[in-house]
Design brief:
The complex is a heterodimer of chains A (264) and B (295). Chain A contains twelve helices and no strands. By secondary structure, chain A is mainly α. Chain B is built from 14 helices and no strands. The longest helix of chain B is centred in the first third of the chain and has 36 residues. The chains are: A mainly alpha (264), B mainly alpha (295). The interface between A and B is large, with 43 and 47 residues.
Chain lengths: 264, 295
């Protein structure tokens, strides 16, 4: 179920120009704020742009933010978490204190503060979300490495004279793969919602780029006369988030540690 | 707790002070008169070395002086404190909504595991977690304010103004709590002391109400404390939707008007209250679960 939704999202993003009936930025001021019609299934915004086409193109923004944010955060989190977990001692203490400080900012507050200073743009959104995102992965990776590194095969590798980076890359990381991939899947949903939230607040992507959050922001202006401007972009966000949540649950069930141990 | 507070302050200071470009240019625009620029520079303390600014502003902040708003010239702290009651009202409202929904749903779902009701509650929980509040809020406005006319669209006043924002902010928490209460109660139901309570002939209402619930709710309290952060950051969006005059809306307004001292103050106050709530949750936890005190 989740995989199907995500597959559709990827297809929509990749082949947006094939699926979208109109250009996402093509204006038609005569038809501004028209409700859903046979030609424009989801209606048109204040500039007469086709909502359906903008939602289809908007999937590119969401997918880009999700993939880049999770990819970069995961990369940084893996490195810092591995170092903290493997080295232990003072290095671990210092890294954990820094993580505590980042965790002290509720939700996307830190990203909001960053956007206030950096100015709104898609790249800045990704930058701000990465600054926030690595923390969760670093904590997870550290915790997992702490438990895996006590196993005999790690001691054996050490006894054979393997260097730390080899032990981390070849012996530790492959063994903590499952919880990390589950968290990354949920992280995609989180990143997409966070981008939409920032754009909704006017701190994210800027017009005319079709982002679902920015479309909701524009919709609020006309909520009294044109509620469909709000309904459809939000529906798109929720379906995609549900998709990633389903996918995350599904992957977790497949990679469940108990199931995993039985398999070996 | 103190190192975390210092760290939070340092990060906020760094974000605000390593703005690419000159903050004076950002605030006044590049066409401002040199005398105005010089005045603002001194006013913000930007003529001093960065380390000096860092230490002196931190000492001032510790005494409650966070500078003045660039637009109203009011002290930042006074401006923020005026907005506190609205945000507290909204977050408490959201918590009440969350508990009112989650408690019955979670308990009944756990008692009737795998029933239609259970599946329904779990579907609600999944929906509540996946539905962003910046969509739920406008949907509620469309349905209850515009179509049905039951509640006002925005603003703050009597209880009728609070209901929609509180539902908007509280739904995600309700969803998380429903899942939590259900799984926690399912765990506890298997314990020996529950079997014992049943075996001695206690009525089912008392078994669940007195023995099972009081134990099942312990982890729920921690989750509520941790989720308070989500409520705080969610209040930024909710307050913007409903024009609710709290700290969250103030933060966004300060950002839009580039009022950097005010932005810094708002972010600091929000982050510090989150740290404080977490600290208090730890204390409360010790009270309701005696096992922790003994360890």
């Amino acid at each position: 179920m989740g995989a199907v939704i995500i597959l559709l999202l990827c297809l929509a993003a990749l082949f947006a120009s094939l699926f979208a009936p109109y250009s996402p930025t093509g204006q038609n001021l005569d038809e501004g704020l028209r409700g859903p019609t046979r030609e424009h299934l989801f209606g048109q915004d204040k500039l007469g742009r086709d909502i359906l086409s903008r939602i289809i193109y908007g999937s590119r923004v969401s997918l880009k933010v999700g993939i880049l944010t999770v990819g970069i955060s995961l990369f940084i989190g893996l490195i810092i978490g591995s170092i903290a977990g493997y080295c232990g001692g003072i290095i671990d203490d210092v890294i954990m204190r820094i993580i505590d400080i980042f965790m002290a900012f509720p939700g996307i507050l830190l990203a909001i503060a960053m956007m206030a200073v950096l100015g709104p743009s898609l790249n800045n959104v990704i930058l701000a979300l990465c600054l926030l995102g690595w923390v969760g992965y670093a904590r997870l990776v550290r915790g997992q490495i702490l438990s895996v590194k006590e196993f005999d095969f790690v001691t054996a590798a050490k006894a054979l004279g393997a260097r730390p980076h080899r032990i981390i890359l070849k012996h530790l990381l492959p063994n903590i793969f499952s919880p990390v991939i589950v968290q990354a899947t949920f992280g995609m949903a989180g990143a997409i919602v966070a981008e939409a939230g920032l754009s909704f607040l006017g701190l994210g992507t800027q017009p005319p780029m079709p982002s679902w959050g920015a479309m909701l922001n524009e919709g609020m202006e006309f909520i009294l006369v044109s509620p469909y401007l709000t309904i459809f972009p939000g529906l798109a966000i929720m379906i995609v988030v549900l998709g990633f949540n389903f996918l995350g649950d599904g992957i977790r069930d497949i990679l469940d540690p108990k199931f995993y141990e039985k398999g070996h | 707790m103190v190192p975390v507070i210092l760290g939070v302050y340092t990060i906020v200071f760094m974000i605000i002070h390593f703005i690419p470009g000159d903050p004076v240019d950002l605030i006044l625009g590049e066409t401002a008169r040199p005398s105005d620029r010089e005045f603002l520079r001194q006013e913000l303390g930007l003529d001093k070395p960065v380390l000096d600014q860092y230490v002196s502003s931190m000492l001032r902040a510790a005494r409650g002086d966070m500078g003045r708003s660039l637009h109203t010239n009011q002290p930042v702290l006074t401006t923020i404190l005026k907005r506190v009651p609205a945000t507290v009202e909204l977050t408490i409202g959201a918590m009440i909504v969350a508990v009112l929904i989650a408690l019955p749903l979670g308990i009944i779902a756990a008692l009737k595991q795998y029933s239609y009701f259970d599946n329904g509650s779990m579907f609600f929980a999944l929906l509540g977690i996946s539905m962003p509040n910046f969509w739920l809020g406008p949907l509620l406005i469309i349905l209850f304010s515009i179509k049905l006319g039951w509640f006002p669209v925005s603003g703050r006043g009597g209880i009728e103004y609070l209901i929609l924002p509180a539902i908007t902010l509280g739904t995600a928490l309700a969803a998380i709590l429903t899942r939590m209460i259900r799984s926690s109660l399912l765990e506890v139901k298997k314990e020996d002391y529950i079997t014992f309570a049943r075996a001695k002939g206690l009525r089912e209402v008392l078994v669940i109400g007195k023995h099972a619930l009081s134990n099942a709710l312990i982890p729920v309290v921690t989750i509520m404390g941790l989720q308070f952060g989500a409520l705080l950051s969610g209040s930024i969006i909710t307050e913007t939707i409903f024009s609710w005059p709290g700290i969250g809306r103030l933060t966004i307004q300060a950002i839009q008007t580039r009022d950097y001292p005010l932005v810094q103050g708002c972010v600091l106050v929000l982050a510090l209250s989150y740290v404080l709530i977490n600290f208090l949750t730890d204390l409360v936890y010790g009270f309701i679960d005696p096992r922790i005190r003994y360890e």
